[in-house]
Specification:
Helix content: 25-40%
Shape: globular
Number of domains: 1
Strand order of the largest sheet: 1-2
Strand content: 15-25%
Order of helices and strands: HHEE
Low-confidence stretches: none
């Protein structure tokens, strides 16, 4: 990973006045841009119930479809 991308992620993690929701959203964006992908997401899994919910989504732009469903 390039040093500028790593610096961005380190700056996010050093944020003391941001909520975890803001940090996760911005981290997904930084990682998506660093990897040059069109979307990224963070899923919350519940293995005993065999469920997964998409908690955070980042899209490069509005032309990329959103993920608006639960995976079972």
């Amino acid at each position: 990973m390039q040093s500028s991308n790593l610096s961005s992620i380190e700056a996010l993690l050093d944020s003391h006045n941001r909520t975890s929701e803001i940090i996760l959203t911005e981290a997904i964006q930084c990682i998506g841009e660093a990897l040059q992908v069109d979307r990224g997401f963070k899923a919350v899994r519940d293995p005993p119930r065999q469920r997964c919910r998409i908690a955070f989504v980042w899209r490069h732009d509005e032309s990329v479809p959103d993920i608006a469903f639960e995976m079972e």
